[in-house]
Design goal:
The chain is an alpha/beta fold. The chain contains ten helices and nine strands. A seven-stranded mixed sheet has the order 5-4-1-6-8-7-9. The mean pLDDT is 95.
Length: 235
């Protein structure tokens, strides 16, 4: 398989609720470091893929670029607010035929699920998007894998601020026009009330508590976390 796949990490420092959160430490690792470690567990050995950090041209994100340079991680910069445009440019410049969206505030990203989703879209030629965003899923585990061409072909239709910022909204709103495969998971449904994302400082404390429960195993499977989270006192 020589079609290039981008595992795109969306990162910025200018979060209104929790600025610079991606550089906050979860025990010993900065959150962005933890995310990258978990992404490297995605099983794509037989495919041509690469990990890239997607950030903005805003001065506030120079810190992210400096981090990437230091760690020798590929990065791309574009519009701060028009994330759809930034994605489009990133896909074209790097010749990605497919890509997976990973947000940098999701320390329990499900690398097993993402591996499954990527394999599904590569195996089925008639699918535009594979998504785990079903009716019931825990916050912080959302992910999409898509064919780049649907971004190229629909770029001129992205008019609203919401669609520019939330890059898959247009496709969900026009679901009948696209072939979207939604992957459901019983553990996701059972734990749909759980929030595993980091939106504010209180969330970070909860995430640290969960990792401590698993003896600071940064590569713990998401399924294991969801199975045992009922045994952790999070409040």
């Amino acid at each position: 398989m020589n079609k290039k796949i981008g595992i795109i990490i969306y990162a910025r420092t200018s979060s209104k609720r929790f600025p610079n959160k991606i550089f906050k430490k979860i025990i010993k690792l900065k959150m962005i470091e933890l995310i990258i470690k978990r992404i490297k567990k995605i099983n794509l050995k037989k495919y041509n893929y690469e990990i890239i950090v997607n950030t903005s041209l805003d001065k506030s994100d120079d810190k992210i670029v400096n981090f990437c340079k230091k760690k020798k991680i590929k990065y791309f910069r574009g519009s701060l607010n028009n994330v759809f445009k930034r994605t489009n440019e990133c896909l074209k410049k790097n010749n990605y035929k497919f890509f997976a969206r990973v947000n940098c505030d999701r320390p329990f990203l499900d690398f097993e699920m993402i591996s499954k989703m990527i394999n599904l879209i590569l195996e089925r030629k008639n699918i535009d998007i594979v998504s785990n965003c079903t009716e019931a899923y825990p916050r912080g585990l959302a992910c999409e894998v898509a064919r780049s061409r649907i971004f190229f072909n629909n770029f001129n239709l992205i008019k609203t601020k919401n669609n520019r910022e939330h890059i898959f909204n247009f496709f969900y709103k026009n679901e009948k026009r696209f072939k979207i495969l939604k992957v459901s998971d019983k553990l996701y449904q059972k734990n749909s009330h759980i929030n595993l994302s980091v939106d504010k400082k209180e969330d970070l404390k909860k995430i640290i508590k969960i990792f401590k429960f698993f003896k600071n195993n940064y590569l713990i499977s998401t399924k294991k976390v969801l199975k045992d989270i009922k045994n952790i006192k999070l409040e």
